Amino acid sequence: MAISDDAKNKAEELKGRGKEAAGSLTDDQDLKNEGKADKGAAQGKQKVADAAEKVKDKVDDVKNKLTGN
Fold it and tell me: How far apart are CA 7 and CA 21, in angstroms?
């Protein structure tokens, strides 16, 4: 079974949070920044996926209205 994009994005976000926390604990600014970047990228991917899902739903709604379903 394939892992959903939502699950992948959440895992990436958690990984970024972990790196950010580890960087804070060890006073490693580079690791902290890398974690922030990973977290931001995952959140951005999730927003794009959410927007694409909304567009797909709207297209399906229009298609259903046109076909009478």
Answer: 21
pLDDT at 69: 74
Distance in angstroms (rounded) separating the CA atoms of residues 21 and 65: 49
The SS3 of residue 66 is: helix
Tell me the residue type at 32: K
CB atoms within 10 A of CB 69: 7
Q: Which helix (H) or strand (E) holds 52?
A: helix 29-67
Instruction: Determine the residue type at 29.
Output: Q
Q: What is the pLDDT of residue 57?
A: 95
Average pLDDT of the residues in 26-52: 96
